[in-house]
Amino acid sequence: MNFRRGRQREEPEINFIPMIDLLLVILIFLMVTTTYSKFAEMKINLPSAQGDTSQQVATPITVAVAASGEMEVAGRKLAAGDKAGLQTQLRDAAAGKKDPVVVVNADAKATHQAVVSVMEAARAAGLLQLTFATQNTTP
Protein backbone atom coordinates (compact mmCIF):
# COMPACT_ATOMS: atom_id res chain seq x y z
CA MET A 1 0.00 0.00 0.00
CA ASN A 2 1.44 3.17 -1.17
CA PHE A 3 -0.44 6.02 0.52
CA ARG A 4 1.98 8.65 -0.75
CA ARG A 5 1.42 7.88 -4.32
CA GLY A 6 0.56 11.32 -5.75
CA ARG A 7 2.53 13.41 -3.31
CA GLN A 8 6.11 14.23 -3.95
CA ARG A 9 8.41 15.33 -1.24
CA GLU A 10 9.23 19.06 -1.29
CA GLU A 11 12.87 19.98 -1.14
CA PRO A 12 13.71 22.21 1.81
CA GLU A 13 14.96 25.65 0.83
CA ILE A 14 16.65 28.39 2.75
CA ASN A 15 15.07 31.79 2.65
CA PHE A 16 17.84 34.38 2.23
CA ILE A 17 15.65 37.49 2.49
CA PRO A 18 15.67 37.66 6.33
CA MET A 19 19.42 37.04 6.38
CA ILE A 20 20.02 39.88 3.89
CA ASP A 21 17.82 42.18 5.96
CA LEU A 22 19.79 41.33 9.09
CA LEU A 23 23.14 41.94 7.38
CA LEU A 24 21.92 45.27 6.03
CA VAL A 25 20.89 46.38 9.52
CA ILE A 26 24.27 45.30 10.92
CA LEU A 27 26.06 47.14 8.12
CA ILE A 28 24.13 50.34 8.78
CA PHE A 29 24.82 50.01 12.52
CA LEU A 30 28.55 49.60 11.90
CA MET A 31 28.66 52.56 9.53
CA VAL A 32 26.89 54.84 12.00
CA THR A 33 28.91 53.82 15.05
CA THR A 34 32.35 53.78 13.43
CA THR A 35 34.62 56.61 14.43
CA TYR A 36 36.97 57.79 11.77
CA SER A 37 40.36 58.69 13.16
CA LYS A 38 41.96 61.86 11.96
CA PHE A 39 45.69 62.25 11.97
CA ALA A 40 46.69 65.17 14.09
CA GLU A 41 49.01 67.61 12.45
CA MET A 42 52.19 68.10 14.36
CA LYS A 43 53.97 71.41 14.30
CA ILE A 44 57.63 70.62 13.91
CA ASN A 45 60.61 72.75 13.12
CA LEU A 46 63.37 70.98 11.22
CA PRO A 47 66.35 70.74 11.15
CA SER A 48 68.39 71.47 14.26
CA ALA A 49 70.87 69.31 16.07
CA GLN A 50 73.19 69.38 19.00
CA GLY A 51 76.58 67.89 18.70
CA ASP A 52 80.07 68.39 17.45
CA THR A 53 80.83 69.00 13.83
CA SER A 54 82.46 66.12 12.03
CA GLN A 55 85.86 66.43 10.47
CA GLN A 56 85.37 65.56 6.83
CA VAL A 57 88.26 64.12 4.89
CA ALA A 58 86.33 63.66 1.64
CA THR A 59 85.50 66.42 -0.81
CA PRO A 60 82.04 67.89 -0.19
CA ILE A 61 79.51 68.73 -2.88
CA THR A 62 76.91 71.04 -1.38
CA VAL A 63 73.31 70.87 -2.51
CA ALA A 64 70.99 73.54 -1.16
CA VAL A 65 67.23 72.90 -1.20
CA ALA A 66 64.98 75.93 -0.70
CA ALA A 67 61.51 75.85 0.82
CA SER A 68 60.02 76.44 -2.65
CA GLY A 69 61.81 73.36 -4.01
CA GLU A 70 64.49 75.20 -5.96
CA MET A 71 67.93 73.65 -5.72
CA GLU A 72 71.50 74.84 -5.97
CA VAL A 73 74.43 72.54 -6.68
CA ALA A 74 77.89 73.98 -6.04
CA GLY A 75 76.66 77.51 -6.75
CA ARG A 76 74.56 76.68 -9.84
CA LYS A 77 70.80 77.14 -9.48
CA LEU A 78 68.25 74.64 -10.72
CA ALA A 79 64.49 74.87 -11.08
CA ALA A 80 62.22 72.98 -8.71
CA GLY A 81 61.67 69.37 -9.82
CA ASP A 82 64.48 69.30 -12.41
CA LYS A 83 65.74 65.80 -11.61
CA ALA A 84 67.69 65.32 -14.83
CA GLY A 85 69.46 68.65 -14.44
CA LEU A 86 70.23 67.88 -10.81
CA GLN A 87 71.75 64.53 -11.75
CA THR A 88 73.87 66.17 -14.45
CA GLN A 89 75.06 68.93 -12.11
CA LEU A 90 75.99 66.38 -9.43
CA ARG A 91 77.89 64.27 -11.96
CA ASP A 92 79.75 67.36 -13.22
CA ALA A 93 80.56 68.53 -9.68
CA ALA A 94 81.92 65.09 -8.77
CA ALA A 95 84.12 64.79 -11.83
CA GLY A 96 87.77 64.40 -10.84
CA LYS A 97 87.11 64.41 -7.08
CA LYS A 98 88.17 61.56 -4.88
CA ASP A 99 85.43 60.17 -2.61
CA PRO A 100 82.99 63.08 -2.95
CA VAL A 101 80.34 63.48 -0.26
CA VAL A 102 77.00 65.09 -1.08
CA VAL A 103 76.05 67.51 1.71
CA VAL A 104 72.34 68.36 1.61
CA ASN A 105 71.48 71.75 3.09
CA ALA A 106 67.69 71.58 3.13
CA ASP A 107 65.50 74.37 4.40
CA ALA A 108 63.39 73.51 7.44
CA LYS A 109 60.24 74.03 5.38
CA ALA A 110 61.43 72.16 2.29
CA THR A 111 59.30 69.20 1.29
CA HIS A 112 60.51 65.68 1.88
CA GLN A 113 59.99 64.98 -1.81
CA ALA A 114 62.61 67.59 -2.74
CA VAL A 115 65.14 66.01 -0.37
CA VAL A 116 64.34 62.51 -1.64
CA SER A 117 64.81 63.78 -5.20
CA VAL A 118 68.31 64.95 -4.26
CA MET A 119 69.03 61.53 -2.75
CA GLU A 120 67.78 59.74 -5.88
CA ALA A 121 69.80 62.02 -8.19
CA ALA A 122 72.94 61.44 -6.11
CA ARG A 123 72.46 57.68 -6.30
CA ALA A 124 71.84 57.84 -10.05
CA ALA A 125 74.99 59.97 -10.48
CA GLY A 126 77.03 57.31 -8.67
CA LEU A 127 77.51 59.29 -5.46
CA LEU A 128 76.88 56.94 -2.59
CA GLN A 129 78.09 59.05 0.34
CA LEU A 130 75.44 61.48 1.48
CA THR A 131 74.97 63.54 4.61
CA PHE A 132 72.65 66.24 5.87
CA ALA A 133 73.72 69.58 7.30
CA THR A 134 71.93 70.94 10.35
CA GLN A 135 72.36 74.02 12.46
CA ASN A 136 73.41 73.87 16.07
CA THR A 137 70.97 75.18 18.63
CA THR A 138 72.49 77.33 21.30
CA PRO A 139 70.94 77.10 24.74
UniProtKB/TrEMBL annotation:
This protein's name: Biopolymer transport protein ExbD
Family according to the record: Belongs to the ExbD/TolR family.
Domain of life: Bacteria
Keywords: Cell membrane, Membrane, Protein transport, Transmembrane, Transmembrane helix, Transport
Cellular localisation: Cell membrane
InterPro entries xref list: ExbD
GO MF annotation: an example: transmembrane transporter activity
Biological source species: Aquitalea magnusonii
Topology class, membrane: Single-pass membrane protein; Single-pass type II membrane protein
Keyword match Secreted: no
One Pfam family this sequence matches: ExbD
GO CC terms: plasma membrane
